[in-house]
Amino acid sequence: MSDTGPANPVIPGFHPDPSICRVGDDYYLACSSFEYFPGVPLFHSRDLVHWTQIGNALDRPSQLSLAADVPSSAGIYAPTLRHHDERFWLIVTNVSEGGGNLVVTATDPAGPWSDPVRLPGVSGIDPDLAWDEDGICWCTFAGVAQVRIDPHTGETYGTPRKLWSGAPGDKAPEAPHLYRIGDYWYLLIAVGGTERGHGVAIARGLTPSGPFEPCPANPILTHRSTDHPVQNTGHADLVQAPDGSWWMVLLGVRPGGGTPGWHVLGRETFLAPVTWVDDWPVVGEVAPDLPRLPWPLVPGPVEEPRDDFELSELRPSWISVRDRPAAHCTTKERPGWLTLRARGTDLDEPDAIFVGRRQQHLSCRARTLVDPAEGTGGLAVRLDERHHYAIEASGSEVRVIARAGSLRTVVAAQPVPDGPVVLGLTITDPPPPHDSRTGPDVVSLGVEQPDGTFTVLATLDGRYLSTEVAGGFTGRVIGMYAAAGTVHFDWFAYEPLRP
Ligand code: 6LW
């Protein structure tokens, strides 16, 4: 929220591939989650601007299993969230072993969601669900192809057929969504790939399977070849507000630093207004400061900046790498503390014992009180197993460890008194001078003294924790980990450092 009003991204941090639906005055939105567990975060809003996470659709092993060999940025790809026949429907792809396309349903989007119905007859990614006037369910997916399905059983009817897939030569036609609006069926797709060439295109036809006539103004949204502060715009979904206005949610990134620009928060969810001209949508600007909305803003509950782990269940925004067995992560062993029990792996391993939350601000600070008496663990900001910065406590020593690709270094170490210690990291703009080679930010890791002063042990270049360096589809996650033994965390606090 800027000081002039609602601001984009409406869901900051790594929340890509947004899919939205509305029931009455309530909006719901789902995003991809890749190798993190639980999967598919779900959000609620009353005004399209303030979003509150209400749960995760895939929050138990019978819905989501991500073995240790699931690569980072694999696992759960793009979902589609719809409401039909008094139920919420979510279709999504687990691109990893034994996954494939699956449907889960719920009467309450906060959960519980059903066990998955598998769709062996639907290949590919980015599945969409749409029902026609006869109640037939059409599943359209990247490529772009379509097949009729029974979403209750997972049965498919016939073989998938190719639909309109963008202009000749359009790269990566994906993220299809099908809508019945007025006299037409509209097919909205992403083109160009999810990098700087990303865009949104649309076509319309008189039946859900076409034939489709492309919009003369395609791509109806792209920021390629512009210096717009939001780049990679694409992978969109449309929703109509109760007042009849239309809106688009989409993914975008906010590169920082010099050239080529590095984005560190992953692909975030943005909002843009849509108007209609000649029965074609016209997308307004994906502006950092949103226009005044034609309805009152309804701020939802805001997550407290500090979690004291007083509840038996963790907040829905806490995510772990590939799984979170109760044997390794509990708030029940030491009431009011989060206990992480290592399994002989550290952050360099795919089955690290890590519990984190998405970094949602370009400048921010995270702190945690850790008791390392029985083990080694601490605070980290990670992109994946090969790209993370950490400050860890082990007995009476604290050390900063940097992992960037094949390089792993203990950057600093210092003795600390025995007992619990507050570890912290701050993420800020790089110090001047800035030029074309300046990175997006710097990460300072240190120890908070009993009098509250912060002693920095190391300040590291943030570009090595960016997608442009690491690759992949996720964004930074900041959290707590255990590398050896048992490590207890009394509290964790995260706060933005500027509006
Ligand atoms: C997603 C595809 C894409 O399935 O990237 O940006 C893939 N678009 O549509 C992973 O997010």
Tell me what you see in this structure.
The protein is an all-beta fold and 499 residues long. It has 2 domains: 19-283, 5 Propeller (Tachylectin-2, Chain A), CATH 2.115.10; 306-496, Jelly Rolls (Sandwich), CATH 2.60.120. The strands form 6 sheets. It has a 15-stranded antiparallel beta sheet that branches. Strands 14, 15, 16, 17 and 18 form a 5-stranded antiparallel beta sheet that branches. The longest helix has 4 residues, at 467-470. It has one helix at 467-470; strands at 19-23, 26-30, 36-37, 39-45, 52-58, 80-84, 87-94, 100-106, 117-118, 128-131, 137-141, 145-150, 155-162, 174-181, 184-191, 199-205, 213-214, 221-222, 231-240, 246-253, 268-277, 280-283, 306-307, 319-321, 329-330, 338-341, 353-358, 364-371, 375-384, 387-394, 397-404, 407-415, 421-428, 442-448, 454-461, 477-496. A hairpin with a 7-residue loop joins strand 15 and strand 16. The model has no long low-confidence stretch (mean pLDDT 96). The structure holds (Z)-L-Arabinonhydroximo-1,4-lactone (6LW). (Z)-L-Arabinonhydroximo-1,4-lactone binds at residues 16-17, 32, 77-78, 125-126, 174-175, 190, 194, 234-235, 251, 473.
